[in-house]
């Protein structure tokens, strides 16, 4: 298969190790199409399809690097529910935090569901387009991923699945409480407050200290 010199130079100027398998895959698809359907692509079309796949792969990688994930947690007291989250960028730097209190009596699971929705709507309002939502509420994460259903909070879950459609990338993941310490402290703090509070810069000193200690602890754990 021969290509114009300009196309060859474009391949040479990019990551050849990543592109070469895609070109082979495109040739293989062309071979199958000829074998089973009696149709062949022109050599330049084979190349262009491989380059399109490579560019889509690069865009996806860039999106994954840009996601800023909210971490959601909750704490309950006398039927009231305090929820909170911290948002970090891909370098684990604190970029936002918020907390809210929901008056009870409410079940812990319903409060957890409301907490996730609170994180969703706040991240959307802040203009995030790619997020990873991590929380220590296992049942809610399972419901978000479609593996479980709960009558008492299905409506809330359906609501923020609709909200999630506003993001170009949105993933849900469960983390243990020990990995969610800062968000859990923010949630506890909300129970002693008067309602909604949020920060995007100009963080209170107690939050900066917690976030820094958390990063240091994570770094120590990864090295041990």
TrEMBL record:
<dbReference type="GO" id="GO:0003676">
    <property type="term" value="F:nucleic acid binding"/>
</dbReference>
<dbReference type="GO" id="GO:0004523">
    <property type="term" value="F:RNA-DNA hybrid ribonuclease activity"/>
</dbReference>
<feature type="domain" description="RNase H type-1">
    <location>
        <begin position="76"/>
        <end position="189"/>
    </location>
</feature>
<dbReference type="Pfam" id="PF13456">
    <property type="entry name" value="RVT_3"/>
</dbReference>
<dbReference type="InterPro" id="IPR012337">
    <property type="entry name" value="RNaseH-like_sf"/>
</dbReference>
<dbReference type="InterPro" id="IPR002156">
    <property type="entry name" value="RNaseH_domain"/>
</dbReference>
<protein>
    <recommendedName>
        <fullName>RNase H type-1 domain-containing protein</fullName>
    </recommendedName>
</protein>
<dbReference type="InterPro" id="IPR044730">
    <property type="entry name" value="RNase_H-like_dom_plant"/>
</dbReference>
<dbReference type="InterPro" id="IPR052929">
    <property type="entry name" value="RNase_H-like_EbsB-rel"/>
</dbReference>
<dbReference type="InterPro" id="IPR036397">
    <property type="entry name" value="RNaseH_sf"/>
</dbReference>
């Amino acid at each position: 298969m021969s290509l114009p010199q300009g196309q060859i130079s474009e391949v040479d100027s990019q990551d050849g190790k990543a592109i070469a398998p895609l070109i082979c895959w495109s040739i293989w698809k062309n071979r199958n199409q000829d074998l089973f359907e009696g149709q062949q692509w022109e050599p330049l079309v084979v190349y262009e399809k491989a380059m399109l796949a490579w560019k889509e792969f690069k865009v996806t990688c860039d999106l994954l690097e840009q996601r800023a994930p909210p971490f959601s947690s909750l704490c309950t007291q006398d039927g009231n529910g305090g929820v909170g989250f911290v948002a970090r960028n891909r370098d684990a730097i604190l970029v936002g935090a918020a907390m809210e209190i929901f008056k009870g009596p409410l079940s812990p699971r319903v409060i957890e569901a409301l907490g996730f929705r609170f994180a969703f709507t706040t991240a959307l309002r802040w203009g995030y387009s790619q997020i990873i939502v991590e929380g220590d509420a296992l049942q809610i994460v399972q419901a978000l991923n479609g593996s479980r259903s709960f009558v008492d909070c299905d409506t809330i879950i359906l609501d923020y699945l609709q909200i999630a459609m506003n993001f170009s990338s949105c993933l849900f993941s469960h983390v243990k409480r020990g990995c969610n310490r800062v968000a859990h402290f923010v949630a506890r703090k909300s129970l002693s407050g008067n309602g909604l509070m949020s920060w995007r810069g100009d963080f209170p000193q107690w939050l900066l200290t917690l976030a820094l200690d958390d990063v240091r602890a994570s770094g120590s754990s990864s090295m041990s």
